[in-house]
Amino acid sequence: MAHTLARQLGSRRRGFSYLEILAVVTLLGITAAIVLTRVSYRSDEAEINACHLHKGNLEVQAQLWFRDKGSWPASNLSDMAADSNYLPDGLPQCPHSSTPYTFNSSTQKITGHDH
Ligand SMILES: [Zn+2]
Predict the structure, then answer these.
(1) pLDDT tier at 3 (50, 70, 90 boundaries)?
(2) What is the pTM of this model?
(3) What is the rounded CA–CA span in Å between residue 68 and residue 86?
(4) Which of 2, 50, 84, 97 has the fewest CB atoms within 10 Å, i.e. the most exposed one?
(5) Among candidates 54, 52, 102, which has minimal Cα distance to 111?
């Protein structure tokens, strides 16, 4: 009797059933999907924040350019990009869309990039 019980317990503890393993693998998959979605959302958000920083910086530099030179920089900002007093690292590119920044002298703003 005791011998049979021990054998039954032993056989029960032999390992995980196929369904248990399937459940664990499924849960791991769902967890990985959620984590990866959040990570890619965060990196999108970081790129957009960096783009907005570039826009703000370029608009301030354009104001300084106007104060110093009495005219606005070219709409593609090539003149400002060539002058290391204003953009020592050159003209930045949008980290989100990889498109160049253009300046509108009537609004005194960088056009587009409303991500
Ligand atoms: Zn942008």
Answers:
(1) low
(2) 0.70
(3) 11
(4) 2
(5) 102
Q: What residue spans define the domains of the chain? A: 16-110
Residue 55 C-alpha to ligand 1 middle, in angstroms?
8
Amino acid at 105: S
Contact 105, 72 (CB under 8 A): yes
Distance 67 CA to ligand 1 centre (A): 26
Query: Could you tell me which residues come within 8 angstroms of residue 25 by beta carbon, excluding any fewer than 6 positions away?
Result: none
Mean residue pLDDT of the chain comes to 89
Using pLDDT thresholds of 50, 70 and 90, give the confidence band for residue 104.
very high
pLDDT in tens, 16-25: 888 888 899 9
